[in-house]
Specification:
Strand content: 15-25%
Radius of gyration: 17 Å
CATH class: Alpha Beta
Number of helices: 11
Largest sheet: 11 strands, mixed
Shape: globular
Number of domains: 1
Order of helices and strands: HEEHEHEHHEEEHEEEHHHEEHHE
Number of strands: 13
Structural class: alpha/beta
CATH architecture: 3-Layer(aba) Sandwich
């Protein structure tokens, strides 16, 4: 489904979600979605992850952790193509404090690796927490071939070896528009962990995204909706709106479904069923998209 088709099927709004403050849910029952509205990014990340069970729910002492942000483009924060560097560094710090043995922040960048790491600000921010943890991985020798059992289209692909060896994968996507997929969030972001993604756009983008997600499911997703590129994605320039929101979910598909329905794309609201790869994910039981049944906690800091 291209952007034009995406818009044609986007006439029905997502409808009302059950959004409530934290005190309305039992303390021992994490919500499906946590939304924090704040200009304090570090506290926002900390609180969002705390609400979905805390970093200790996902990262244990001695774990090897891979964090996958969007850092593919040689552009700064205002373009809204890359994940906010402060948000990524805040996740690194939480993992370090949880006792992670190794923390790696990885992406196979589309722009020149050196330029992408520099302009995104992610390398500088994360190095202050764990020196040398950020890498742009492009050399084929750092990838391993993986079979995708049950893949509709994608039968094998080459994934970064360090990802395959990790105990925990964390998604840290930028919430943004995408000319081919409609929106790019958690599921679409996993394409940055493979060697070659060109075949996705030829063979069937949405099916391939779902195929890949079946072998690359993060423990949780922390979505950056501080600034959202609502048109012109994934690299911009496009229309950028300030929402100052950080969203967390243990189910990456659910997180994507919620975020896709929450914001306008190319001037229109959509439902999760309008997004081909979310529809595929639900059909394959890779995650939930029934946003009307989600338990959502929303807080303003």
């Amino acid at each position: 489904m291209n952007r034009r088709d995406f818009l044609k099927t986007s006439l029905i709004s997502a409808g009302a979600l059950s959004i409530a403050p934290a005190e309305l849910f039992g303390a021992d029952i994490p919500p499906d979605i946590a939304v924090i509205n704040t200009t304090d990014i570090i506290k926002g990340v900390q609180r969002a992850i705390e609400l979905i069970g805390g970093i200790g729910r996902f990262v244990k002492n001695g774990d090897k952790v891979v964090i996958k942000p969007n850092m593919s483009f040689a552009s700064g924060i205002d373009v809204a193509a890359n994940t906010n560097p402060i948000a990524v560094a805040a996740i690194v710090e939480l993992c370090r404090d949880a006792g992670a043995k190794k923390i790696s922040v990885l992406d196979n960048t589309l722009s020149n690796p050196r330029d992408a790491l520099s302009y995104s600000g992610i390398e500088t921010a994360c190095n202050k927490i764990v020196k040398g943890c950020v890498s742009a991985v492009k050399d084929e020798r750092f990838f391993s071939e993986v079979s995708i059992k049950g893949g509709a289209i994608l039968k094998t692909t080459k994934i970064i070896k360090e990802v395959l060896e990790a105990d925990v994968l964390i998604a840290a996507p930028k919430v943004k528009s995408h000319g081919g997929a409609g929106v790019s969030i958690t599921m679409k972001g996993m394409m940055g962990l493979i060697y070659s993604r060109s075949s996705f756009h030829i063979s069937g983008l949405h099916e391939c995204i779902a195929d890949l997600y079946s072998v690359l499911k993060p423990a949780f997703t922390l979505m950056d909706a501080i600034k959202v590129m609502t048109t012109g994605g994934p690299g911009g320039p496009g229309n950028v709106k300030d929402y100052n929101e950080i969203i967390a979910a243990a189910d990456g598909v659910a997180g994507d479904a919620f975020a896709a329905a929450r914001y306008e794309w190319y001037g229109r609201k959509v439902t999760p069923m309008n997004v081909g790869y979310l529809k595929e994910a639900a059909k394959r039981s890779l995650g939930r998209i029934d946003i009307e049944n989600f338990k959502v906690i929303s807080e303003k800091l």
